[in-house]
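Lab notebook: predicted structure, single chain.

Context: the supervisor wants predicted structures on file for every construct in the current expression panel, including those that have not yet been purified. This is the next one on the list. No modifications to the sequence; it matches the entry in the shared construct table.
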Amino acid sequence: MIHPTANVADSAQIGADTRVWHEAQVREDAVIGAECVIGKGVYVDRGVVVGNRVKIQNRASLYRGVTIEDGVFIGPHVSFSNDHYPRAVDPDGEPLGDDDWQVEPTLVAYGASIGAGAVILPGVVIGRWAMVGAGAVVTRNVADQALVLGTPARQAGYVCSCGRPLAGTNGDWRCAACDRRYTFDPAAVTQP
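Prediction complete. Output recorded below exactly as produced.
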């Protein structure tokens, strides 16, 4: 389903049972998998790849170089950037074009969640089942199942694949909601 107010380029690929809602824009050569929800006003730049069963909430912006694996949640107003040194003009004042950006790839791995209003800087990897807190600014890689918070984002613990925070000591972690158990390196966790 593509809403009549959405703008989807002819060369974009949209998977089966994916819904593209009001005012969304999906640019040239973008690939969106099956069973996704692309919310109102979402921007998917050219060449962006989105896996299956991904939910992208209203007004999120995914720029060139971003790859989203299956089962990822992207909250409203999340913004991915793709160039560490952006400029509108060159040193002579001439406008820069689309091909003048130094795009750095960004990957959001399987099952990860990104909270509302988070900003993801270029070139990072957000690990499997990781969770980025609302409003965080992610400047470096996020480990699998890590919970990161703040500006800049720092690891504050781990989360279960069900999404709940884990409690742990000495590297052994447990989910109180579903009783799943994990082992992580206790030295990897730093407070925000």
